[in-house]
Amino acid sequence: MTMTPPAPLLRVEGLTHYYGSRLGCGDVSFDLYPGEVLGIVGESGSGKSTLLSCLSARQEPGGGRVLYQSRHDGEIDLYSVSEPRRRLLMRTEWGIVHQNPRDGLRMTVSAGANIGERLMAVGARHYGEIRDQAIDWLGRVEISDDRTDDLPRTFSGGMQQRLQIARNLVTQPRLVFMDEPTGGLDVSVQARLLDLLRGLVSSLGLSVIIVTHDLAVARLLAHRLMVMKEGRVVESGLTDQVLDDPHHPYTQLLVSSVLQV
Amino acid sequence: MTSQTNAPLPAVAVRNLEKTFVLHTQGGARLPVFAGLTLDVFPGECVALHGPSGAGKSTLLRSLYANYKPGSGQVLVRHDGGTVDMVSATPHQILAVRRHTMGYVSQFLRVIPRVSTLDIVAEPLITLGTAPEEARDRARALLTRLRIAERLWSLAPATFSGGEQQRVNIARGFSVPYPVLLLDEPTASLDAANRATVLELITEAKQRGAAVIGIFHDADARAAVADRLFDVLPVPSQAA
């Protein structure tokens, strides 16, 4: 029966992290299903990035659990497995798109090598095939193949961000974390990137957790939203419900503060 | 209703629905919209929501689609051999109902940068698993009927006129043969020929068994497709 949802890809239970006595994120729980895009919105300092770091195995949380349904080994409790196991998972099943492409790219090797390197990290060895796949992925993110051998630093910000996305997706991850992927880009460049992301997410059936402070980006990409304030989730639900009929005072303030164009 | 054993079940059954907006950014003002609202809509009929501007017709339509969250009550929708209550359903269930069972044509098209008109119209079918070329054929047929010039199909509708955007929106809403259709002013700002086409599309939907709930300010359009009216009356506001 189509009503029965598949098992969640990610189960998050009571995730809590303090920096000293200051709350980073508190008691966050949710399930993420295959093919689902979850948006985390809120102002700077609301705990979005802390939460994303805890979820993506980059910051061990003080409390709570992150359970991931892996491809071959069943459910993994992220912070009870060994560091190498976590690293393998990040390489083979996950992707992370950083706000600043410099944090996700290697600026001293060519665009093609940035993609090929990820393939080699998961065991690809045939040079011709690696190069073909790299060129294929550059095309999918709308970078022409005559730029394959150029260094990323010769690319515009939008191109660098597209390259970072290609570098992440070439290994066919199941879960991708994105931290303000359109932040710092011109509006016209943003639109192109958003459209590209939207197409890739739906055609590849990716599960995505995306942090953004831009409600328009959230509306375009996310199926569901969590609204964070001072480290806590204050409201969550279907994206259009949260944005069109916000209930929490903070969400109402956020939505009503967006300037109309 | 008769007591015949083969009496059809409603496609949508609204039970004791209540909706109040609480505006925290405006001193916690409470705006009650409706309460105790009960309505059955059966396959093959069109019910027109009727009432003065501001009475809550659009709010009701959005609540049926679970775009707005009612405070209490039920919106029971027949879906996939069972019943889903849109008020208490999980996000996954709501999205499944929207994909397969319930279509909603809003007054305004939400334009997505860079997505062509043809793909905007074909997208709901493709999401359901229809082969892209078949979905685009259906989209072409609808755009032709709604008189959107072929030279516009490959363009994103951001720069289209209001009437053109509305027709693209209608084409998208009618691309999937949804069992339930919610229509918010589908004929507003259309010329006579296009209004007639939209009324034809609604009539065809009813004939294939769709339950249609609509808001029609145009009395002639309402008379042409609605089988009955449902009064939505304003609730006296306590906030004033």
From TrEMBL, chain A:
It comes from the Bacteria. One of its GO terms (biological process) is peptide transport. Keywords: ATP-binding, Nucleotide-binding, Transport. SMART domains: AAA. InterPro entries: AAA+_ATPase, ABC_transporter-like_ATP-bd, ABC_transporter-like_CS, Oligopep_ABC_C, P-loop_NTPase, PhnK. It is a peripheral membrane protein. Its main location: membrane. It is found in: Cell inner membrane. One of its GO terms (molecular function) is ATP hydrolysis activity. It holds the Pfam family oligo_HPY. One of its GO terms (cellular component) is plasma membrane. This is Putative phosphonate transport system ATP-binding protein. It comes from Novispirillum itersonii (Aquaspirillum itersonii).
